[in-house]
Amino acid sequence: MKIDQKQKISTPESSPATFFDNAEAAVDRLQELYSEATRFLCERFIGSLNGEVPTSRYRAFYPEIRISTASYASIDSRLSFGHVAEPGTYATTITRPDLFRHYLIQQIELLMENHGIRVTVGPSTTPMPVHFAVAQEKDIVVPEAGATPFTLRDVFDVPDLSTTNDEIVNGSDFTYPDGAGPLAPFTAQRIDYSLARLSHYTATDPEHFQNHVLFTNYQFYVEEFEAYARKMLSEDSGYTSFIATGNQEITTPDGVIEVPAKLPQMPTYHLKREGGGGITLVNIGVGPSNAKTATDHIAVLRPHAWLMVGHCAGLRNSQSLGDFVLAHAYLREDHVLDDDLPVWVPIPALAEIQTSLEKAVAEISSLEGYELKRLMRTGTVATIDNRNWELRDQSGPVQRLSQSRAIALDMESATIAANGYRFRVPYGTLLCVSDKPLHGELKLPGMATDFYRTQVTRHLQIGIRAMEILRDMPLARIHSRKLRSFEETAFL
Q1: Cα(24)–Cα(28) distance, rounded to whole angstroms?
Q2: 459 three-class SS
């Protein structure tokens, strides 16, 4: 059945924009508008699937936050967020106010405090795709094209790439149709897209993600993470529950977790703490493409830090299997981000992350100062996109590795760091040497088994301890000005 494109458009009852000088009240209103829009679309969609003949096109809009300021008054220059760079009108579309409630209140309060202004909350002009409106309804599935008695795009709005992209974070001079500048790094559609992808790739719901994310490239770390979580749940640790794939949750150390018949592409686990202060571990597998995919989507949750704790090839003969590598620079030969972040953009080491990782290594290893150099080296980490690079003519790659002063090589770290830089998420890398291909120590089954048995536990404990140190830092210190441009969004 075809729908007359000239017929009327049916929308929820129009709600006027409202000024707010209280952040919590503003977020309450965002939630009301969001609920009205999703309820409207869900009801119409279910009715259409049940045989009701659509008599109009159904459309609802994302809510938005909007501010205007005419003052050039300077703000606290120590802050890297919570303010706009110059006078003008700024806006952002909003999705899932329930999920982002604490974040939104925090960011709105900073705007009000730093600029002495009110915020406006009302419907935007950006249609909400029906796919995202029904995403939280577990019993509703959007059929494939041709599976409904009507053409879906004729009746409902579907995802639109013009509002589902990274133009804001990539510095592409993004403005809304009415000329307003961006207030936040992502549009509502971009966020909804990533929330759906996260559920698919990780088999856990986005609301379980914590503010501190560890990435690894081996399942061995997952087993140790679960063991650590069970230990924490047996103590007065502040951690409240552990979430495994399939959203399985345990709150006691002897809770049962069933092994799924099929693991998701990126198995993810969450050791939860009140206020999102826990730790999420993502096994991204091997390769820069997976690293980019994971960070592309987790970035919309605005975590406070993410770290790579995986394995690497040691490039120096003085290194031993099991040694740690703290990256302070990255040689980017992964290529997956070349179009979004050119290779001439430097990826700086972040002092807050570096000191936290070094302190964690010292605590867990009981070494400090000059003695710590026996176990850990700081230097350049090279990331490549060819797992079997050592089988090619080595004259080219080895010369580049030498010129860059690289001390380790892997396939994920530079990608994760570069995307952290691009998305303004504090990043860091602590790797563990698992082989030395340039010196005849290859990763063979027997060697790997012994290595995993002795090193994984300590390495993971270091990553967790570093996150706990970062958790106790003031937010303004972690999100430093090094990650912010001179044309920056007010929201983190």
Answers
A1: 6
A2: helix
**pLDDT tens digits, one per residue of 27-59:** 999 999 999 999 999 999 888 888 787 888 999
From 480, 479, 428, select the one nearest 213 (Cα to Cα): 428
Give ∠ CA 125-128-131 in degrees, rounded to 5. 165
Query: Tell me, what's the pLDDT at 74?
Result: 74
**One-character DSSP codes across 384-422:** ES-TTGGGS-SHHHHHHHHHTTEEEEESSHHHHHHHHHH
The pLDDT tens digits of the residues spanning 383-422 come to 988 766 666 666 657 778 888 888 999 999 999 999 999 9
pTM (two decimals): 0.92
Domains and their CATH numbers in the chain: 9-198 (3.30.1730.10), 203-483 (3.40.50.1580)
- From residue 474, how far is each of 111, 304, 352, 471 by CA, in Å? 18, 11, 11, 8
Which residues neighbour 315 within 8 Å (Cβ) at sequence distance 6 or greater? 382, 401, 406, 407, 408, 409, 436, 438
Beta pairing class for 311-314 and 427-435: parallel
The whole-angstrom separation of Cα 51 and Cα 281 is 44
468 contacts: CB under 8 Å, gap ≥ 6: none
| 296 pLDDT more than 60 | yes
Q: Return the higher-pLDDT residue of 443 and 375.
A: 375
3-state secondary structure of 88: strand
Q: Mean pLDDT across the stretch 163-190? A: 91
DSSP 117-152: --EEEEEEEEEPPHHHHTTT-TT--PPPTTSSSS-H
Listed residue (353, 472, 486, 458) closest to 413, CA to CA: 353
Q: What is the DSSP string of 367-379?
A: --GGGGGGTEEEE
Strands 248-250 and 239-244: antiparallel
